[in-house]
Amino acid sequence: MKKSIITIITMMLCISTYAQLSPFDENAPVGWASIGKECTGSNNQNPVVVSTEEELRAALQGCKGGKASKTIYISGEIFLGEKLRYDGVQNCTIYGLPGSLLYNYNHSDVADANPGFYCQKWDNCIIRNVTIKGPGAYDISGCDNISLVTSTNIWIDHCDLQDGMDGNLDAKDGADNITISWCKFAYYIAPWARPGESDDHRCSSMWGSSNSRDEEGDLNSTFVNCWWYHGCGQRCPRIRYGNVHIANCLWENGTEDDPAQYCVGIGHGADLYIENSDFTHTVLKTGQSDMRGHNKYYLTEKKVYELTIKGCIGEADAQEQGAGNTHGFYNPYDDSNYKCKVYPASLVKDILTDPETGAGATLDENLLETRGNSNYGNYTPTAIKGIASNDDAQVVGIQYYNVNGARIASPQEGVNIMEFQMSDGTKRVSKIRK
Questions:
Q1: d(CA 258, CA 228)
Q2: Which helix (H) or strand (E) segment is 184 a member of?
Q3: Among 280, 423, 408, which residue's Cα sits nearest to residue 434?
Q4: SS3 of 411, please?
Q5: Residue (of 227, 187, 178, 163) closest to 358 by Cα position
Q6: d(C-alpha 187, C-alpha 205), whole Å
Q7: Is 218 helix (H, G, I), strand (E, B) or coil?
Q8: Are 253 and 228 in contact (CB under 8 A)?
Q9: Which of 384, 283, 427 is nearest to 17 (CA)?
Q10: Residue 195: pLDDT above 60?
Q11: In which region does residue 414 sit, left (phi positive, over 0), alpha (psi from -120 to 50) or beta (all else)?
Q12: Which is deepest, 43, 84, 133, 409, by most CB within 10 Å?
C-alpha cells in the first residue's frame, strides 16, 4: 500500500497540465469584492471533500461563527431537503468539483425547501463552480439558491443557478462588497402559482429588499461576465441602493415563445454603471419596459436613481437621473483601487456562451492555477492544486474519483481526482492523469 501511494505521488509531481480559462477571465475577485480588503476565502486551509448532505452540513457547521477557515469541495450530486443556513461563516471557500450538483426538485409549500445557501453575516467567502437546481419559482416568500444577508467581501464565480423558489441569487440587509462573475442564471421549470400571489415569479436577482429599508452605502456590487438565460422573466438584476457596476453581461432571458418582462430593473436609490454589455438577444413582452425598467412599478418620478450606459449593444449610451436624486453619476473607475477589465460588447455572446470556458460551472479540476496579472499580482485563489499544507501529516489511505465526482476503485484512463486520508485526520485532494 505504502509503495503504491508513493508511486502515485511521484506520478502526480511529474504531471504538468493546466486548465483552460477564457483569456478574458481574470480568475480573481475583480471589482467590489476586493475593495477595502482582499477577498481570499479560505486561503487553501483545511480542505475537505463532501459527497453527502450530512458531510456538507458538518463542514459548514465547522465554519459557523468564524470558528475556522475551511475549503469545502462538493463532489457528486447531493439532494438537500432544505436550505443551508449557517450564520457568521468567515474565511471559507466552497468549490464544486466538475459534475457536482446541489438539488431539490420537489414542489413544496415549505418556504425553506430549496437546495441553496442562506449566507447571513458571512465575511471573506468564495463560492465557485457550484451548480444549484431548485424546484422552480413559487411565490410563497421561499428561499433563493443563494441569499446574501448582511454579508461582506463575497466572491461568487462560475456558478450555475437554476430554478430558485424565490430567486436565484439575492442580496439584502446591508450586504456589501460583492462580486458576481462568470455566472449563469436560468429558469427551466414552469413557474408554480398560488391563489392571490404572482403566477410567474421567475425573478432571478433582487438587490435590496424594500424601498423603505434604507441601505444607502451598502449593496456595492459588481456583475461581470454574467449570463441571464431562458426563463429569467425579470430582476436580471433588480437594484435598490448601492453602487452597482454591470459589465460584459449577456441577456437571453426572453424568447418569442416566452418573452421576459425586462432585463435590468432600476429601483429606489440605485446608482448604476452599465458598460459593454449585450441586450440584443432577449425578447420583451409587448407594452412592457425596456431594459431601463421604465414602468409604473420600477421607476416613477418619485424614485431616486441615476444611471450610466456606455459601450453596450442594444442600448445607446445614456445618462439619466430620477427626480430628487442628489448624487453625481456613479463611475466605478473614479476609485483608483477598483480593478475590472472589460472588452467590447460585440464579443460578449461568443465569450460567455462558450461551453468550455464561458459562464456557468465550466471550470475543471485544474481551474484555479494562478494566472497572475498586473491587477492582482501574486493572488492565488483556492484550488485543488496546492491545497496540501506544509505539515508532518502522512498519507494513510487514498480514494479515487473521476472528473464528475463519482468514486471509482482505481485510476481510469484520463484525469482522475485523488483524495488522500492523512494521519492527522484531514483530507487532501489532487489529481493524476493516467
A1: 14
A2: strand 184-186
A3: 408
A4: coil
A5: 227
A6: 12
A7: coil
A8: yes
A9: 384
A10: yes
A11: left
A12: 133
Q: Which residues pair with 102 in a beta bridge?
A: 78, 132
Which grid coordinates belong to 320? 439619466
Q: How many CB atoms lie within 10 A of CB 112?
A: 14
CA separation for the pair 150, 148 (Å, rounded): 7
Angle in degrees, CA 344, 347, 348, rounded to 5? 95
Q: Is 10 helix (H, G, I), strand (E, B) or coil?
A: helix
| 310 beta partners | 275
Q: Indicate the pairing of strand 407-408 with strand 395-401.
A: antiparallel
Residue whose C-alpha cell reads 450530512 in the numeric block? 54
Give residue for cell 475556522.
68
What the block records as the C-alpha cell of 323 is 427626480
Give the cell for residue 199: 403566477
431: confidence class by pLDDT, cuts 50, 70, 90:
low
Please report the pLDDT score of residue 391 as a whole number.
39
What is the per-residue pLDDT across 231-255, written as a single tens digit (0 to 9) for each?
999 999 999 888 999 999 999 999 9
**DSSP assignment of 194-232:** -TTS-S---B--EESS-TTS--TT---EEEES-EE-TT-
The pLDDT assigned to 395 comes to 55
pTM: 0.81
For residue 420, what pLDDT is reported?
Answer: 63
Q: How far apart are CA 194 and CA 198, in angstroms?
A: 7
- Contact by Cβ (8 Å): 182, 156: no
Q: Which grid cell is 102?
A: 446541489
| Cell numbers given for 321 | 437621473
Residue whose C-alpha is closest to residue 404's, from 416, 419, 418, 421:
416
Output the nine-digit C-alpha cell for 414.
484520463
Query: Please, which pLDDT band fits residue 147 given cuts at 50, 70 and 90?
Result: very high
